[in-house]
Protein 1
Amino acid sequence: MYTDKVLDHFRNPRNMGEIPDADGVGTVGNPVCGDLMSIYIKVKNNRIEDIKFKTFGCGAAIATSSMITELAKGKTLDEAMKISRGDVASSLDGLPPIKMHCSNLAADGLHAAIQDYLKKKGAQK
Amino acid sequence: MDHAAGKPVDPRILEVMLPYFTDECGNPSSPHSWGNEARKAMEDARSRIVSFIEAKKLEEIFFTSGGTESNNLAIKGVALRNKDRGNRIVSTAIEHMSVMNPCKSLIKQGFDVAFLPVDKYGMVNLEALEKAVTDKTTLVSVAYANGEIGTVQPIKEIAEIAHRKGASLHVDAVAACGQVPINVQDENIDLMSFSSNDMYGPKGIGALYVKTGTRIEPIIQGGGQERGLRSGTENIPAMVGMGKAAEIAKAEMKTEAERLTKLRDRLIKGALEAVPSAFLNGHATQRLPNNANVRFSYVEGESLILSLDMLGIACSSGSACTSKTLEPSHVLLGIGLRHEEAHGSLLFTLGRQNTQEDVDYVVNALPDIVKRLRAISPLTPKEMLQ
């Protein structure tokens, strides 16, 4: 059902954890639906310097969270905003069709974290 | 440990089936000697099933393609045949989808169906049942035991309530058959669905017991096989296999149930002791011998299944993430669990191949798996991670 890449990221998730002094946090999904994801980012010179995640959910939810941290790390905020759900799925060599919508939330989580950062930065000015 | 999802065919059963695929290929409707042989094999299989469930006679057993068809036939067949007497059906909120969905299709046709709530163990409330069964009720349909949480119902009492109002009682015994002894006459059951694979027979064959005198009409029509209630050329090898499965179950069920009950309780106790914030779903004692359903807070079932699979352990979950509809199990919601609780449930169904070593292997594997997923989950309380 899952590709080897999905299983690899599920087994050995990259950048798992929290950033206590994160510059932005994005939480998407809902435990009622079975998937809840939090993405934490540290931003320096407009680039994502560090990124971590915590996820409650199925194999696909954990693997997509792990993958997004790899895709986003080191990118500028503009570049990171352009990472789509499709990019995450194709980087994992695809997801089962039924999981494309429900568990492929990682891009949304990343975008929410960036928006949170921009909002906080705006408030500081 | 996912025997409810599929069981291997017992080699003793396969052996008696094989000649009927090749040498003994007669059609029981044919008047010649090949037809006679096929007819004899079919009636012999039927008589083993009669003896297994303690039915009165051969004419009360109708072969179908399996549990799903038996449930459809019982519900639609009785409801439609008796609509001159009433349009109400009473069932429960935790039935198998092959009971729920035919009932829902009858609602669209104007029938009035009550899906009674159950208590937190999955037990039908007899007082609520008594109130729900009216003079217009023609059918009460309750599973003998729930296939997901294993809860066994007080069938005799349910039958008494149904019969007092003149309704027939249909019992979905697919999960229970071969696990616990069932006597359709003693327990006053009017219709009972059961399947062959759940007794280590082949898939694609099941049966419906219909007590003599019960009014029912066919849902599959054709050449009039199975006394007109279920047309279609008889699948003789599968029938022979199911007959043998019933015979073996009758002989071995008691010993096997005792063995499985011990393994089940060892698994449940072991899991609840080894993992913090783990809970049993269903009833502690009124439960099928093969069924252990446990839930773990803060983690999701599919990721538990994947983790166990990596260690060579197979099981199921009521999580939405493992279902085709993306809805969590209606059974787990029916016993009052919140969505996020239902997501963390694991179902183990034990079988003949499982040993105490298997159970201990699972119990030893669970703590690390749950701990790892809890470390990833944002729902886990901080103090639990220390």
Protein 2
Amino acid sequence: MRFEYAPAPESRSIVDIRSSYGLFINGEFVDPVDGERFKTISPATEDVLAEVVAAGPSDVDRAVSAARDAYENRWRDLPGKERGKYLYRIARLIQERSRELAVLESIDNGKPIRESRDVDLPLVAAHFFYYAGWADKLRYAVPGGAFAGGPAAGFTPGGSAAPGGPAAAGGPSGSAAPAWPGGAEPRPIGVAAQVIPWNFPLLMLAWKIAPALAAGNTVVLKPAETTPLTALLFAEICQQADLPPGVVNIVTGAGETGRLLVEHPGVDKVAFTGSTEVGRAIARAVAGTRKRLTLELGGKAANIVFDDAPIDQAVEGIVNGIFFNQGHVCCAGSRLLVQESVAEPLLDALKRRMATLRVGDPLDKNTDVGAINSAAQLARIRELSEVGDAEGAERWSPPCALPDRGFWFAPTIFTGVSQAHRIAREEIFGPVLSVLTFRTPAEAVEKANNTPYGLSAGIWTEKGSRILAIADQLRAGVVWANTFNRFDPTSPFGGYKESGYGREGGRHGLEAYLA
Amino acid sequence: MPSARLAIRKTYKLFVGGAFPRSESGRSYVVTSVNGDFLANAALASRKDVRDAVVAARAAVPKWAGATAYHRGQILYRIAEMLEGRRSQFVDEVAAVETGDAVSTVDAAIDRWVWYAGWADKLAQVYGSANPVAGPFFNLSAPEPTGVVGIVAPPDSALLGLVSVLAPAIVSGNTAVVLAAEERPLPAITLAEVLATSDLPGGVVNLLTGRVAETAPWLAGHLDVNALDLTGVTDPGLATDLERDAAENLKRVRRPSPTAADWYAEPGIDRMVAYLETKTVWHPKGV
């Protein structure tokens, strides 16, 4: 039986895209000094959406200066409570304008509206909400004063109990406050240069800006070349929140702008999310400087399915793991490791499920898989898939009509993949799944860890003790058991090995922004 | 010449289960301002009102404790928003019953809701732990709310003091029965109007006005109350009696502070921690 879907397009009228955008520096949109203008397009239609700036050296310099001035004169010394209030305002404004942001995200990025509306935007607002609450609680984030680098003067303002102080359950509440055990309070670092990718433009912005501001830093953020528009709308939200000028600065541009930003001598902290190749270059560039660095890079996650796994749930998890966001996910479950005894029924069920995926218009509410973000990324996916063919893996895609214009790639699996194949080793960053098999748990662990990456992993089994034992052995920063691609502002996210260092989210996410 | 309009006065009632009933006893008592002027007749709660409030609080536990921490944080923040919107009303009400700077008192009360709103999804991260036990086990300790908390609100600070004892009890998922400041109960009932319009489920907070010496023993002795905050009990003899009553079902008791509280100071986490249970989960590891 086949059900036909009528188109259910989300209205674009909620979004007002300007024909041209400047840079957001010191609280206002300004024309570039030495930046060039370029066009940003919709990957689903290849229509030009707007003209934006590729910021040049003087533009970047202005932005960093504005951030420095705001740091020293308007933000660093603002009480945490008041910084938190700005972040709460931003969280509320995002909630209020979430549909508008979601539609714009889908237009500029190509991701299905169902995902930008139901995943990206709620997480963005939640992230700001979560870190807003930390702004006046920083010393509780690092028990024992782990970052105590300053003078050992006891913490006195407010005279409050700190964790590690006497718990008062059942006892009298002394008003004499214990000193903060570690001595100094955690302090901000300074000006943060933040460079984010195009796969979750606004969510990555939230992951970067919310903890930085909560901790008292100011930021210059560069959104990805192909997805600048929601960051520029976010700049408008900063204006609506009356955020002091210079606390958030947005400079658009491509890799060169990013390089100028992270290498700028006025920057104290660099945070980058993107490819391992660029991450390595940034790590080299900051060597010998005072700059602190966190990197969230590529992945080649193993999604391990044991023979006792609930097959239908596992299939949903596999689909979510690799086809969510067109596979443009650094933690995507791009290597399926399936126990040999259940490989056949599992792959049959997976193919049946893939045949129901709807590929097409990102703004259609029925769409499961949207557009590939750029022509360059599409070329990369095609190239690696052709290598997969050439190296002897077997390619399968469901019958799937793709639109004539825009960048599209059908959901694809490769079976018969060996560990030496490039499609098992390199990050494709597209809707392409490499399937390998294993016989024993030890072999599954061996294969899962046989990668330079270590961002995430998945385990599917009904046996709790096995989940925990396998999780212990996986060299990955996030392990999902009987689920995949779950995110929450309270849950730390980040990689082992060449997937980068540092964590975003949770209490740990503050560490990157505290001295 | 415009005729002088006669003001409409508000009837101050109790707040139980999300509704505003009068005391079942039909009694009231006179509340006066700092100058001794008549302000209103407040409801004089009885032991049956205490029991009704405990029933409402208990009924509200599953939904409130079961809400996500994020959701509870959103609601506490909403309370701050609603309070901010009625700021001038609270300034007037606090100024009528307290000397001191009513504006900064109300501001501090609003900010206190924001402070605790932020704790909702952070408390487990600060107060929980992953425990490295000597064996192949996953072992995680996480805090959970204890249940129904009975609170005697501080008599010296009708709004800020009340918020400072109430917010830390409910942020983690407890529900509360609060005996408001006896001589200045009106800001508490107006606060209840804020709570009632902030998406806080009915019964999470129940506020009673009346004589603490009359109602507190029924709260302390009630077997469906899990914890008791005696912050507002000024009579040491009464505090001892209440603590003794509370021992019957081993209520968690927070004693009155021996020194005057500074309600403006940053509160720390001890008031939240007082009404938490720690649950530790073990699970074997092995393929």
